[in-house]
Each structure stands twice: as C-alpha cells, then as structure tokens.
DNA sequence: CATGAATGAGTCTTCATTCAT
DNA sequence: TATGAATGAAGACTCATTCAT
C-alpha cells in the first residue's frame, strides 16, 4: 500500500468513526505511519482528504446507477435494482459511505460547489427513473418524484446511523427490504 | 426573554446553521448579547446547551406520538397521522430539529447514553404501531417493522438537508406526501 | 504595567532586534510573562502588534512635525528644526523607530494601505516646507522637492542600521549634523 | 542560461519583491523550472543564494568606486561621479540592489561577518573621498565624514522603497540630483 | 546531475473553560 | 448574578533540508 493510500484509508476509518471535525491530522498520520509533512506532500489540506473519499463513493455509485438505469427491463425492476444496489454498495464500503453521508457540509466553499453538482446529477438520474414509471402509469403520480427521491435517500443516508455489519441483517437483506418499501410505496 | 432563553435561542440558530463543532461559545454569547461568564453561570458547558435543545425536540415529539398512537381510529390512520405529525412539527421547529437530526454524536459519553434510551423509546412506540398493523393484517409483514421504522426516520432526518421553508412545499404538503409514501409502502 | 503594555514593549524590543518575521509569538509572550491566549485576548494577530507600534511612532512624529512646520520663524529655521527633531525623537525611541523603519512591508494588505496614506501625509507636510523655501527663493529649485524629501528620509531610516546609543554621538549631535547637511544641500 | 543562473535570477526577483523570509525555496525552484534537489546540488542553503546575490552587487559597486576614486580630476568631481554612479548602477540592477539593501541582517552569523567587512571597506573608500575634500578645504569639516557617508548611504538604500523605473525620473536624473545634494551639502 | 518523497521542528491561531472581582 | 481577563492544550499548516534512487 502506498503512502497516499494508507493516508486515505486511515482518514476514512477515523472520519467514519468520529466525524471530520473530531479527527486531528496528527491522528491520521499516526495511524498511517507517516509524518504530517508527508501528508501535506500528497494532499493540500485536511479537506482534500475528505474530498477524495467523497469523490470515490460518489463516482462509484453514479456509475452503477447509470448502468442499471440504462438497462432494458421494466422500469419497476430497474428502480428496484437501483434502490437495492445503492444500499448494498454503501454497506460494502461502509466507512466510506458513512463519511460521505455525514460530512457533506464540512467541505470548504469551492469544493462544496463542485461536489454539489455531481450530487445533483445522481439525484436527477434517480428521479428520472421514478418519473419514467409515473409517465408509464405504473407509479403513483400524486407524490412528486422529487419528494420521493429525497425520501428514499434520507433512508439510505440514515443507514450510517443504525446499521451494523455484525447484526442479523445482511447488506442484501436491507437492500431488498428498502427497495421493496420504495417500490411498494409507488404502487398507484 | 430571559438570559438563558436568549442563549438557547442563539445556540439553536448557530448550531443549525453551522453544526455544533463549528460554533464557538463566543459567537453564541455575542448573539445572545451576554458574556461568557453569564453562559457558564446558567449552563455547565457547551454540551449542556446542545443537550437542552435536543431534549426539547425529543420530549415534544415523544408526547405527541404517544397521544396520536393512543387514539382510537384504525391503525392505518393513526400511523398516517403520526408519520405526518413528526414532519410538520420538525419543520415548524426547523432549527431545533436540524440540531437534533445532525448533532446526535457530538454529545459527551454520559449524556449520549441518556439520550439514546429516550430515543429508543420513541422508536419503539412507532414500531409498535407498525407491528399492530401487521398483526391486524393491514400491513405487509415481509419487511421487519424495525427496518421500516429506520427507513422512515431516515427520510425524516434527511429533511434538514434538503427542505427549505421558502420553497413551494408547505410543512403539511411534505407531511402528507411522506405519510402517504410510508403507508403506501406498507400495503400488503 | 498592564498586560497589553508589557506585550507591546516586549514585541517592540524583539522586532527591533530581529525583525518581524524572525520573532515568534511565543517569544513575545514569554518575555511579557503571559500566555499566548492572553495575547490573542488583546490583539487580533501578530500583525496587530506591529501595527500598534507603527502607529505610535508615526502619530508622534506627525504631530511634532505639524507643530514645528506651523511655527513662525524663517523657513530655513523651521526646516532645520523639523529635520533635527525627527532624528532626535527617533533615537529617543530607538526600538520603536527601528521597527517602524524596517518592517513597513510586513503588514497585511488592509493595514498596509491605511498606514501608507498616513505616511504620505507626513511626507507631504515635509515636502511643503521645502517647497515653501523654494518659492521664497532661499532653497535651490533645480532638485525636485519630492526627491529631496525621499533623500532625507532615506538618511533617517538608515539610522536604524548604523547608529548606536552607546557611541560618541548623542541624538542631538546626529540631529544637528543631519539637519545641517540637509539645509546646506538646499542652499541655492 | 545555466541552472544555477536561473536559480539566482529567480531568487533575485522573489527576494526583491517579497523579502527573504517571505520566499519559500519551493517558489524559487518552481520559477527556475527545476526541483529542490537541483538547488541543493548547486547551493548549500537558501542563505547561500542570498549571499551570492549580495556579493555580486557589492563587488561590482566596490570595483567601480575604486576606479572612480582613483581618477585624477578634482575631488569634488570625483565625489560627484561616485555618488551618482552608485545610484545609476543600483537602479540598473534594481532587483539585486533591493535585495542587497533590504536583506542585510538575514544572513547567518558566519556569512554576515564576511559581508560586513567588505561593506566596511566600501564605506571607508567613500569616506576617504570626503576626507580628502575636507583636507583640501573644499568640503565643510564641521560634520564628521563618517556621518556624512552614513547619511548618503541611507538615501541610497532608501531608493528601494520609493523609486520606480516606470516613473518620470531616469536613473541618471536621480543620480544627478542625489549627487548634487550631497556635494551641495558639503560646501563650506 | 537530478528527482521528489519524507522529515521534524516550528508557525500562528483558536477555543472551552476558570476565576478573582 | 455577571464580568472579562487569562489559561493551556490542541489545532492546521509550512518549510528548509536530507537522502535513497
């Protein structure tokens, strides 16, 4: 593992466990086994570290959503698959996901804006799926697609708060349940 | 408004806007128009302030849930009312709710435990409502009630991230939509 | 001596001896016998300390120049007195003057501008004296007054580099010599 | 341009613009288009760079002064030429001169001493010229030659603070004015 | 000759909290 | 009740220099 990888890895664990503001740069470099100077050689700031972790989750989930949404099954199935997939991948990369879900607003102004627009794209792709089903008449249309998407992502983000990999529910269990609830709630 | 009230009020606004760790005690007392000494006269620590804000939301919502759940209408209606009510009251006290939703893990160990058990009670009362419906056969039983409740509270907590009182959706709109989605998803 | 006074005094000595950039805040507070927190209670930054020292010299010298220039003797005598006075007061407050003469450009942008305009006023008052003599025909006019003033202030600022209070020359000696040279150079 | 030349050149510009302590080695090598390793291959330290720049100005000016002083015209003319020459060459090599004039005390102990004695030699050669005129009765003797020389060099050093090559005054203009003032002030 | 990763000591600044008054 | 001066520990970040390659 290279030094920057070790740093990212250490930062991910710590940010996930204590939150960005509660982690000192010193702790990160100690855990990575390097000195502060080394960290600032690779990353411009503590914020950069967060940004990097952020980006990797967002990129991965965006790619997967795109692929699933572009499939050719019925929209109900595609939405179910997408809803389930975001849960499974979040749990499979739980520390990264925790950081992503909880530290959104800790980024400095400039990076926050860049991130925001990437995020919006994800949100919109998901919403398009819901709207497609509404247009096709298979989803209820009395609740705005936008509200539904916020509703579902709330549930997803909250995973970081209650889910434990050591419990009885596997990632797939939760994915299936959540997707069932979402799709179920959209029945006309 | 008394001094402690002014302090709570100032702290609520600031914590809601920037997050607990990003607010200095000095900012709070400045906004409240008092000095630091005064704050430490009334509150033992910065944490205490958070605890106070926390408590007030949780207490209020617990009381209301209790009353609604204990009503005598059909369980579907009671769940819908409870689901909608938590949204409306959260939006009506949006700053307090934001603090409550986002700063859970910032409390010191001892206070966190106290808080946790209050929280669990609320969660369990809500879950009981779902289970009641499942037992009565009006709610689907293939998704554990526990998962459903986490799912819904995720959506609720996420309000703090996306909802704006200045937008087109009123508190009641969102309450109705969210409750519709929840109840809809529980149909067998 | 109050704490802020002790801080200013310690900072003056240290800045004079080593230059602004070579002095650590820690050294200043150690010498003043307080902690860093105390310093930041009274001064917003290390720059503020510099600004304070700066200001006091500049204010004093401006006031004295104003008074001397406004006198009613012949212009030759007033210029001689002003030229001599700036030397004597600089030597009497040698540490402060050293800081003033050598650390001009170390101030942060905003404070530098404020300072600059005060400084210009001083320069212009002095120049007006030279121009008055030129208009009266008692000073040569082939060298622009502006150049002469820069020339003389260069000599003054340089005091910090070579003069020592322990040498054979008293402040008055240097003042007289410098003023003699200036007035002598302006003879037609 | 060789690598060491590029480094010297970059360092000169940066030191002149921001002062020795405000320039990072990284900036210098970036501007020179090389890496830090390369710099430390050619120069022992950041101080060395300063020393090099220093030396070149001082050496050049010493040589020229020597030549001018050893001429065979009247002492008044030789002093005027020397006084004017130091201005013109300082302005022609303005960045180097700025560094030389302003960063005197930033050198490490050992190098500072070496520099000091070279400097003294220059000062003494100049003073000898003044004393020669005093002995010949063409310069006033009531102001010590030593003081006069400090006085004049102050004016020279101060150029770095106010002179701009883009203004209306050419190097020769300033040289003539300054020399006129010096020679004028020495009239008996 | 030259790279660039890594060091380690040092920089300024922030802040929750205490305490004499 | 309330002040505000003072503390002390911790915070993020910088930078000249070294060294294996």
Automatic annotation (TrEMBL), chains A, B, C, D:
DNA-binding region, residue range(s): 24-43
Keywords: DNA-binding, Repressor, Transcription, Transcription regulation
Organism field: Umezawaea endophytica
PROSITE patterns: HTH_TETR_2
GO molecular function terms attached to this record: DNA-binding transcription factor activity; transcription cis-regulatory region binding
Gene3D superfamilies: Homeodomain-like (1.10.10.60), Tetracycline Repressor, domain 2 (1.10.357.10)
Entry keyword annotation includes DNA-binding: yes
Domain HTH tetR-type: 1-61
InterPro entries, per database record: Homeodomain-like_sf, HTH-type_TetR-like_transc_reg, HTH_TetR, KstR2_TetR_C, Tet_transcr_reg_TetR-rel_C_sf
Listed name of the protein: TetR/AcrR family transcriptional regulator
């Amino acid at each position: 593992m290279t030094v920057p990888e070790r740093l990212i890895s250490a930062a991910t664990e710590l940010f996930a466990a204590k939150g960005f503001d509660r982690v000192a740069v010193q702790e990160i470099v100690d855990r990575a086994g390097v000195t502060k100077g080394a960290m600032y050689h690779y990353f411009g700031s503590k914020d950069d570290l967060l940004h990097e972790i952020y980006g990797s989750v967002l990129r991965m989930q965006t790619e997967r959503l795109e692929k699933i949404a572009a499939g050719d099954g019925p929209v109900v199935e595609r939405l179910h698959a997408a809803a389930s997939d975001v849960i499974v991948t979040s749990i499979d990369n739980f520390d990264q996901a925790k950081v992503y879900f909880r530290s959104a607003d800790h980024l400095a102004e400039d990076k926050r804006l860049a991130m925001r627009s990437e995020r919006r794209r994800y949100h919109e792709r998901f919403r398009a799926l819901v709207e497609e089903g509404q247009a096709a008449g298979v989803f209820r249309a009395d609740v705005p697609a936008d509200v539904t998407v916020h509703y579902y992502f709330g549930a997803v983000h909250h995973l970081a708060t209650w889910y434990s990999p050591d419990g009885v529910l596997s990632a797939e269990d939760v994915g299936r349940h959540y997707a069932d609830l979402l799709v179920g709630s959209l029945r006309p």
